[in-house]
Amino acid sequence: MTIAAVTITPIAQPLADPTWRFATAGIAKVDGFILAIESTRGVTGYGYARALLPFDLPPAAVRSVLEHLTAALPGREEAEIAATMAALDQRLAGCAPIKSAIECALFDLHARGLGVRLCDLLGGARRGAMAQLRIVPLKAPDEMAAMAAKLTREGYRFLKVKASGDAALDLARVRAVREAAGPAVRLMVDANQTYAPKAAIAAIAAFGA
Questions:
Q1: Phi and psi dihedrals of 9, rounded to 5?
Q2: Residue 26 has what DSSP assignment?
Q3: What is the mean pLDDT of residues 2-31?
Q4: Do 173 and 22 touch, CB atoms closer than 8 A?
Q5: What's the rounded Cα separation, in Å, for the pair 136 and 143?
Q6: From the CB of residue 69, how many other CB atoms can be counted at a distance below 10 Å?
Q7: What is the DSSP letter of 116?
Q8: How many CA atoms lie within 13 A of 78 on its CB side?
Q9: Are 173 and 144 a contacting pair, CB within 8 Å?
Q10: What is the C-alpha separation between 136 and 160, in angstroms, rounded?
Q11: Cβ-proximal residues to 6 (8 Å cutoff; 6+ apart), any chain
Q12: Residues 6 or more apart from 130 whose CB is under 8 A from it?
């Protein structure tokens, strides 16, 4: 069967915490697009392209790239995913994160068309569940500790602790989160490139002490 139509729908996901921030910016919502690819037999596969500044292109640019690439999809065989993606690479170089949304939708479409789970199409399930990581955003140490405690109670066992480049304050943050989360929770520290190399080495040693 062939691809009949493509729909691009903008989606904005507001954060429950409007003060959420990391070292270089605050994030109040996550913009993106849901991509729906429909075949001539009425089956639809879905993908998602994020448009979160400053990590991604602006929403208007992401949509423009999606529209440019997906204009080439109608009429193509839904099962010929590798050939389709190669054609898109010829149509536009780069933009891998946006192209991944199209590839995900194509695989989802093909699996739904065959009536199988996507994991079966890709070789079978490897596990029944996957541990999820949550980020503890940049706040005062006591506020970060409170959030870490809440996430731990909800069952999370992997936390990424945001840091700001202020070594003393960041150490207080990490210690507060560790005390609140307990020894069984694995912590990662992400300072978003705010440390110079030697300062980072010293901070890492302090975090692990």
A1: -120, 120
A2: E
A3: 93
A4: no
A5: 10
A6: 22
A7: S
A8: 27
A9: yes
A10: 6
A11: 35, 36, 37, 38, 70, 73, 74
A12: none
β-bridge partners, 190: 162
Q: Please tell me the CATH superfamily of domain 3-121, with its number.
A: Enolase-like, N-terminal domain (3.30.390.10)
Answer for the pair 32, 26: CB distance below 8 angstroms, yes or no: no
The strand pairing partners of 35, in sequence order, are 8, 47
Above 90 in pLDDT, residue 54? no
List the domain boundaries for the chain. 3-121, 133-208
**Closest-CA residue to 85 (of 37, 133, 125):** 37
Q: Six-digit token pair at 133?
A: 């990581």
Q: Letter for the amino acid at 159?
A: L
Instruction: Specify the pTM.
Output: 0.85
- Quick one: pLDDT band at residue 181, thresholds 50, 70, 90? very high
